[in-house]
Amino acid sequence: MVDVIGFSGSPRPGGNTDILLDNFLKGAKIAGARTEKICLRDYVIQPCVGCEQCRKHKTCTKLLDGMQSLYPRIEAARGLILGSPTYNYNVTSGVKSFIDRLYPYYIFDDSRPRDYSSRFSGQGRKAIVFTVCEQEDIHETGFALQAMKMPLEALGYDVIEEFLAKGCFDRAVVRTQKELLETAVQHGIKLVQDL
Question: 88, 143 in Cβ contact below 8 A?
Fold first, then answer.
């Protein structure tokens, strides 16, 4: 059975990011996947310190924190959903730390500058990224979607959807946007169908 793992990068429990993630995962379940929801705020994830030990060990051995329990779950799931509210035109610091700590999955050669590939390449992994923004103007989301999409693509994921929920600030206001929630469900279904 296909596994889909979903990550909420919001520090605010029960808010718009969590609700949207629930609906993406609902769609994945409808399509027959086993799913898991992870709220990054529940884990201590230290920022990468660039020690490069993970190149040798294929995992982070310098920082023993919440990522140690997340690595095997990420490896097991071929589908990944990553969401963050827009903070200052970008992702939250929790999402940034999480993305940086995926560095052990890169493989580097000895050239300068180093060419790289990913241990996830060629595995048919798929992903959805999404952001929630208070403002209506799409430019106010800044780099949030790209900050999630580009690293996942470099890691070997095919990002099949970049999803934006704009005009959403008040806690759980997205619940009133039935069409948006149903679209999230449909994208969750498609994610599993594409795997």
Answer: no
Burial class, 136, CB count within 10 angstroms (exposed 0-12 / middle 13-18 / buried 19+):
exposed
> Distances from the Cα of 46 to the Cαs of 60, 142, 144, in angstroms?
11, 24, 20
* pTM score, whole prediction: 0.94
- Enumerate residue ranges in the chain where pLDDT < 50: none
Domains and CATH numbers, the chain: 3-194 (3.40.50.360)
Task: Give the single-character DSSP code of 131.
Answer: E
Which residue matches tokens 């793992």?
A: 5
Closest CA to 133 of 29, 3, 20: 20
Q: What pLDDT score does 115 carry?
A: 86
Predicted pLDDT of residue 141 = 85
Q: Write down the pLDDT at residue 4.
A: 97
Strands, E assignment, the chain: 3-8, 34-39, 79-85, 106-108, 116-118, 126-133, 158-166
Residues whose CB is less than 8 angstroms from the CB of residue 24 and which lie 6 or more positions away in sequence, other chains included: 6, 81, 83, 128, 130, 184, 185, 187, 188, 191
With vertex at residue 183, the alpha carbon angle to CA 172 and CA 180, rounded to the nearest 5 degrees, is: 35
What pLDDT score was predicted for residue 1? 57
Tokens, residue 100: 């940086």
Task: Give the per-residue pLDDT at 171.
Answer: 83
